[in-house]
């Protein structure tokens, strides 16, 4: 009887195991089918604005995420120009929140950029040229329009368009898993998350989520190795470093700085309305820096709202905008950093460009490089604890800062890194580029 029970148990176990494995196979097949059906991949050989065939592999598409895939996230993907079969895969998120992945593609680290040689006048499409300093020289990069409502990404319902840090992170996690399932040759590649500015909040949260699902055995496994952030928003205390930065750069006087320290007690963004002395000093500070470009204090401060107006972007000048006044606006703005941002609005709102990119008709109206009015809940205010957790798990991180950004200054970045209490293993040193100190 014992043998019979053993044999019966074994048969029952084998049968149950077979059913279990069959269920897993069916689930995997249905998952693969669902992933494939949810995505739309568009390979681009010719891109309006670029002369001739593209010498890079460029792909765009949508990936459906969220409940019933009511959120459609748009992306640009460029393969590594070196060893695409083994180089790292980078997911790049722009800041804002609400700035399109195209901003990172064309203005930061991507393989194409708008030509600075010609002064674009709005009569034809801006010219795109290759970027010799693109990160695609050593990695494959996905530039994502996230959160929903950014760039060409859209929600199918008003509820789907409501987002925040935690929802954005969950949607990006779903996006990456589905994208990898649709691109199985990249599943084993080292993965790095990267971004700048406000992405300093969602990127560490996303890294933590990926770590959690990897530890839970969720498939596909994401081979996360670390993350990269430039001038990242990290903690509400970041704002308090604008004034020390301005003083260190000699943008305000010693007298005003000392008065601010005394009257505001180091808290400059949440001033007690009853603190008249602090309010007076803050008004003096705002007046002193009113002509300064906060994101790059060495750049000219320009107001090109008229140039960036819908009347001109449409390519149909209103009666109030003549060719002469438009030309004058361009001449006045020729040295402005923001003038390049106007190029992308002309470019991305052109019908031939949208067709080449595979943008679905009727899904969005005017494309904007950054949309700052999306319904977004800031339900994670600080990412410091996430940095600490990820470092303790052995993930690599590179945090870099430009030294002329007053909005998220290097002082703020140094302060929160110091708060982690890590040991210093390499002393401060100059960074040399082409024989010169570059930082």
Automatic annotation (TrEMBL):
The keyword NADP does not apply. It holds the Pfam family Peptidase_S10. Keywords: Carboxypeptidase, Hydrolase, Protease, Signal. It comes from the Eukaryota. Residues 1-36 form the signal peptide. InterPro entries: AB_hydrolase_fold, Peptidase_S10. GO terms for molecular function: acyltransferase activity, transferring groups other than amino-acyl groups; serine-type carboxypeptidase activity. GO terms for biological process: proteolysis; secondary metabolic process. PANTHER family: SERINE CARBOXYPEPTIDASE-LIKE 19, SERINE PROTEASE FAMILY S10 SERINE CARBOXYPEPTIDASE. Belongs to the peptidase S10 family. This is Serine carboxypeptidase-like. It comes from Parasponia andersonii.
